[in-house]
């Protein structure tokens, strides 16, 4: 059972000289190692919610717990070093090289020079930038996508428990954004970090998040898996929000594990096999190109854990919705 990394207990935020709450009565538990996307339009409270986690903003009322302890009881400087923070503007220091930018927090923590150098190289490799080619460059010598990769590496430099990301890909072109999304998914699976990721893009939220928080006017409208939200929207607002996504987009962001059926005791060796993270769009494409009535779903060392039938996807797309298994 995963530990609770962050818990909100009836948390509200009201700014001075305003009658409305930016965040109102939020109760939520975020499990360690989960990837949570926070989705909402401008003014919905999503960024305020994020910034209360690392105490850039203090809650007006309620309590936020970090692994069971109120963050108000923690020394703020030490607490913030346990949390990586990535924003849209990146915020790299222009007068520092890539190497110096990434090594900022380790230097503050008084790591030795060799340890910092090895950490910088390892992180650049992790974000797919060659240390030999990039660590002596300055931010002005990098593309927007490269700067964002360095910003991500810098946020991970001290191996934080939690990563906060505030629309980090919002200013990036569509192709680079898609590549960065894939890299972030890969990194999260490898390191098992707890990530809170703010976005206003429905597709991005559903693609990245194990669970999605949908906010509107400071309140959480729904907190569920992408499949749970698509199959059972909590209210009219959520239903309208996800209605902007056509069936093809939904199939692209939903994963095999979200709809797979129980598998029979005996399975055919000839059946096509996919991973639990395979998109339903790719599985539908396979069905359209091959004469088979089902695929098997595998989960690494556990072997076959389920199946998806052609009939299941065919009915789903014909009705314009994804049906519950």
- What is the CA-CA span between the terminal residues? 25 Å
Query: What is the CATH-assigned architecture of the largest domain?
Result: 3-Layer(aba) Sandwich
**Portion in helices:** 25-40%
Our estimate of the beta-strand percent is 15-25%
- The CATH superfamily of the largest domain turns out to be P-loop containing nucleotide triphosphate hydrolases
Biggest sheet strand line-up = 6-7-8-3-9-10
What is the averaged pLDDT score? 88
* CATH topology (fold) name of the largest domain: Rossmann fold
Taking all Cα atoms into account, the compactness measure Rg is 21 Å
Largest sheet: 6 strands, mixed
Which consecutive residue ranges, at least 5 long each, have pLDDT under 50?
319-325
Shape: globular
CATH class bucket of the largest domain? Alpha Beta
- The sequence of SSEs as H and E is EEEHEEHEHHHHHEHEHEEHHHHEHEEH
- The overall number of domains is 2
User: Tally of extended strands?
Assistant: 13
State the helix count: 15
Structural class: alpha/beta
Characteristics:
325 residues; alpha/beta; CBS domain Like; 6-stranded mixed beta sheet; 4-stranded antiparallel beta sheet; 38% helix; 23% strand; disordered C terminus
Q: What's the short version?
A:
The chain is an alpha/beta fold.
Structure description:
InterPro entries: AAA+_ATPase, ABC_transporter-like_ATP-bd, ABC_transporter-like_CS, CBS_dom_sf, P-loop_NTPase. Residues 6-242 form the ABC transporter domain. Keywords: ATP-binding, Nucleotide-binding, Transport. This is ABC-type quaternary amine transporter. Its EC number is 7.6.2.9. By secondary structure, the protein is α/β, with parallel strands linked by helices. It folds into two domains: 4-245, 3-Layer(aba) Sandwich (Rossmann fold); 249-319, CBS domain Like, CATH 3.90.1280. Helix content is 38%, strand content 23%. The protein contains 15 helices and 13 strands. The protein has helices spanning 46-53, 76-80, 98-102, 104-108, 113-126, 131-134, 144-155, 174-191, 202-208, 226-231, 236-242, 247-253, 256-259, 280-289, 310-319; strands at residues 4-13, 23-31, 35-39, 61-66, 69-70, 83-87, 162-166, 194-199, 211-216, 219-224, 273-275, 294-298, 304-309. The strands form three sheets. Strands 6-7-8-3-9-10 form a six-stranded mixed sheet, sandwiched between helices. A four-stranded antiparallel sheet has the order 2-1-4-5, with helices on one face. A hairpin with a 2-residue loop joins strand 4 (61-66) and strand 5. Helix 12 packs across helix 14 (280-289). The protein is globular, with a radius of gyration of 21 Å. Mean pLDDT is 88; it is low at 319-325.
